[in-house]
């Protein structure tokens, strides 16, 4: 089974319900798309991720009502350095979509999704703990896995695998 | 929306209430979960789980390993269902590579996964019943679990950390007599489930401790990210095996148990019914097991057979190269989710085109399920906290990673 090349052309993918819904709402919210290995990725402008998620959750056509996961990838030393990744699942439609937000290394912060899905709480705390991304509007943004007094964010690429000794 | 309240900071010194610290060394917290309880007499006012005691940085470790070296790490995330984790990871990497897996390997994976589900649910049932006070069930469950573990040992050489699935197929051919042993177990198992149910389902004490306890509505369960039996116990009918099939699950017929009540008893019934469904899948897998190879035909990725290595130069070279340099995976990213015994287990693997994963992230079902604990317990009795923790079936290795 040979891999088909990824489609990144917005024109070809604007028929996808989630892309169409976001474009109809605010064309500036979608900064890119990618369809690769049967998975749909939408790059969303970091200023409107919370509204975009609420929109996709409540729209009858999309119905992405379940937040599967929030995580992050550090592309150090490239800029924008961080990608925060949201995996949404539609329980009625049995569909998945991945939303991505790109953040600069200067002060990585993005709006919290806790008001859309309370289940975002632990996921966002984990990303904050391990990557140092701040989620504005999070009710209790504290370290989740590492000790309270730990220095640094271990999953960043400039953090050594063995830790600081 | 009532469920939007912030996670509380618990501080002692308020008039009526006191802070009770449960765990991390408490027998009914299933590992090293610490729960902070604010109680007013016997009533739980607020509850806050505290996790991280078992954090070992597996995601970071993965970034320093070759793709094939990550498989043993995945066992250690959730030590009660190692094969589910193996499967989820290898499926993700195979999707990145675009590998086609031969049917026999797929069916073996399904067979082993369902045995793993039985193993995991038996541990859950035994410990959950023991927490609530039904000690006998524990012994019964571990009797059958021991047999499953012996089968794991037979097929992979290990009882718990199996690492039996490899990228591109399976590690070993199933040994002689393995299928007969599984068939014999599968024939006997349903009456063992009857035995557990005889002890619990109609038992009035069990009913009083579980029915109507730690309720959660479907809306709350979805909003909090619950999955698996914790979600189906609240009446949401979703099972990734049926709805988004992977590894050939579309070839199997099984029911997805759903209960409407959303209490501890509903989640208990879902899992017990799943035990029965799993054994049906095991039987179907045994009956329809295809013949053929257990590894994909991908010489640079799948380790060659030992016999070929002794006679063919090329096989020896590939073996040497895979072990010393790994294999490059085309750049890209994949999110692969499977239905683990606890819910949606997801692996997000990012490749930058080298032989080591750029990022491996595990979506732990338990981490999301644990968030439902305050919703279930607040306003309830302190003794019900133990029942609620048991009913969401947590494994701390998976939560903390």
Q: What is shown here, in short?
A:
Chain A is an alpha/beta fold and 165 residues long. Chain A is 21% helix and 28% strand. Chain A contains 4 helices and 7 strands.
CATH class annotation of the domain at 10-107 in chain A: Alpha Beta
Quantity of strands of chain A, as a count: 7
The largest sheet of chain A, given as strand count, sense and whether it forms a barrel, is: 5 strands, mixed
Tell me, rounded to a whole number, the average pLDDT of chain A.
Answer: 87
What structural class do the secondary elements of chain A suggest? Answer: alpha/beta
H/I helix tally of chain A: 4
Mean pLDDT of chain B: 87
Give the SSE order of chain B as H and E letters: EEEHHHHHEEHHHHHHHHEEEHHHH
Helix content of chain A: 10-25%
**Contiguous helical run count of chain B:** 17
Name the CATH homologous superfamily of the largest domain in chain B: Cytochrome-c3 Hydrogenase, chain B
Which keywords apply here?
heterodimer; A: 165 residues; alpha/beta; Beta Polymerase, domain 2; five-stranded mixed sheet; two-stranded parallel sheet; 4 helices; 21% helix; 28% strand; B: 401 residues; mainly alpha; Cytochrome-c3 Hydrogenase, chain B; three-stranded antiparallel sheet; 17 helices; globular
Structure, described:
- The complex is a heterodimer of chains A (165) and B (401).
- Chain A has a domain at 10-107: NADH:ubiquinone oxidoreductase Nqo5 subunit (Beta Polymerase, domain 2, 2-Layer Sandwich).
- Helix content of chain A is 21%, strand content 28%.
- Chain A is built from four helices and seven strands, in the order ααββαββββαβ.
- In chain A, a hairpin with a 2-residue loop joins strand 1 (30-36) and strand 2.
- Chain A starts with 9 loop residues before the first helix and ends in a 29-residue tail after the last strand.
- Chain B has 401 residues and is mainly α.
- Chain B has two domains: 2-50, no CATH class; 68-400, Cytochrome-c3 Hydrogenase, chain B (Orthogonal Bundle).
- Chain B contains 17 helices and eight strands.
- In chain B, the strands form three sheets. In chain B, strands 1-2-3 form a three-stranded antiparallel β-sheet. Chain B has a three-stranded antiparallel β-sheet with strand order 6-7-8. A two-stranded antiparallel sheet of chain B has the order 4-5.
- In chain B, strand 2 (34-40) and strand 3 form a beta hairpin.
- The model of chain B is unreliable at 1-8 (pLDDT under 50).
- The chains are: A alpha/beta (165), B mainly alpha (401).
- At the A-B interface, strand 3, strand 4 and helix 4 of A face helix 1, strand 6, strand 7, strand 8 and helix 14 of B.
């Amino acid at each position: 089974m040979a891999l088909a090349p990824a489609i990144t052309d917005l024109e070809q993918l604007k028929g996808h319900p989630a892309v169409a819904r976001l474009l109809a709402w605010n064309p500036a919210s979608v900064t890119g798309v990618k369809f690769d290995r049967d998975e749909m990725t939408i790059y969303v402008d970091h200023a409107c991720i919370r509204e975009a998620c609420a929109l996709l959750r409540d729209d009858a056509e999309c119905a992405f009502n379940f937040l599967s996961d929030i995580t992050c990838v550090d592309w150090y030393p490239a800029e924008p350095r961080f990608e925060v990744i949201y995996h949404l699942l539609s329980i009625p439609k049995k569909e998945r979509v991945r939303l991505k937000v790109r953040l600069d290394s200067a002060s990585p912060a993005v709006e919290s999704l806790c008001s859309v899905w309370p289940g975002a709480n632990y996921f966002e705390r984990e990303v904050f703990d391990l990557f140092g991304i701040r989620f504005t509007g999070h009710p209790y943004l504290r370290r989740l896995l590492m000790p309270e007094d730990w220095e640094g964010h271990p999953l960043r690429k400039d953090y050594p695998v063995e830790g600081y000794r | 929306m009532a469920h939007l309240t912030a996670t509380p900071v618990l501080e002692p010194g308020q008039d009526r209430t006191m802070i009770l610290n449960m765990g991390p060394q408490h027998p009914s917290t299933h590992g090293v979960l610490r729960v902070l309880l604010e109680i007013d007499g016997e009533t739980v006012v607020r509850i806050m789980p505290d996790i991280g005691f078992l954090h070992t940085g597996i995601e970071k470790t993965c970034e320093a390993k070759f793709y094939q070296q990550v498989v043993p790490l995945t066992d250690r995330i959730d030590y009660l269902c190692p094969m589910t984790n193996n499967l989820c990871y290898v499926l993700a990497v195979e999707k990145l590579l675009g590998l086609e897996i031969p049917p026999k390997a797929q069916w073996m994976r399904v067979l082993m996964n369902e045995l793993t589900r039985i193993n995991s649910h038996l541990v859950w049932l035994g410990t959950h019943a023991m927490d609530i006070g039904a000690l006998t069930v524990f012994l019964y469950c571990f009797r059958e679990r021991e047999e499953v573990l012996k089968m794991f040992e037979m097929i992979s050489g290990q009882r718990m950390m199996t690492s039996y699935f490899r990228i591109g197929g399976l590690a070993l051919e199933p040994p002689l007599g393995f299928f007969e042993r599984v068939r014999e177990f599968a024939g006997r198992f349903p009456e063992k489930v009857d035995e557990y149910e005889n002890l619990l389902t109609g038992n009035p004490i069990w009913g009083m401790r579980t029915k109507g306890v730690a309720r959660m509505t479907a809306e709350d369960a979805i909003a909090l990210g619950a999955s698996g039996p914790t979600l189906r116990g609240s009446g949401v009918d979703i099972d990734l095996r049926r709805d988004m099939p992977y590894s050939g699950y579309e070839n199997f017929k099984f029911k997805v148990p759903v209960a409407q009540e959303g209490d501890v008893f509903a989640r208990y019934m879902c899992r017990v019914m799943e035990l029965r469904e799993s054994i049906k899948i095991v039987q179907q897998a045994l009956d329809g097991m295809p013949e053929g190879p257990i590894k994909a035909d991908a010489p640079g990725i799948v380790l060659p057979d030992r016999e070929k290595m002794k006679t063919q130069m090329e096989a020896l070279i590939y073996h040497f190269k895979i072990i010393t340099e790994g294999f490059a995976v085309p750049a890209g990213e994949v999110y692969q989710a499977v239905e683990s015994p606890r819910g949606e287990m997801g692996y997000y693997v990012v490749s930058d085109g080298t032989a080591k994963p750029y990022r491996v992230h595990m979506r732990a079902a338990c981490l999301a399920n644990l968030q439902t604990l305050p919703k279930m317990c607040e306003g309830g009795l302190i003794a019900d906290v133990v029942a609620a923790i048991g009913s969401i079936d947590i494994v701390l290795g998976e939560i903390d990673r």
